[in-house]
Amino acid sequence: MTEKELLQKNIEEFSRLQSYMLACEKNSGAYKLMKERYVELKVILSASGVNLTELDRVKE
């Protein structure tokens, strides 16, 4: 997998994960687990130089 393909995969996962988080109760166990992955993806994308300003809908 090329770097570009990996970056695209992470952006798609970040977007999909945010949709799930926004559809879920913030107090739920599922939300807390998703938030851990959300933070991981946010760090990966930021370190890769992706501007998350427009991509980040959860903003936590």
Description of the structure:
The protein is mainly α. It has one domain. It has helices spanning 3-22, 29-47.
**Can you tell me the number of structural domains?**
1
| Computed Rg | 12 Å
Shape: elongated
Determine the strand fraction and express it as a percent band. Answer: under 5%
In angstroms, what separates the terminal alpha carbons? 30 Å
Element order: H for helix, E for strand: HH
Helical segment count: 2
The parts where pLDDT drops under 50 for at least 5 residues are none
Counted beta strands: 0
Please, what is the average pLDDT? 96
Helix content: 55-70%
Q: Structural class of the helices, strands and pairings?
A: mainly alpha
Q: Largest sheet, described in full? A: none
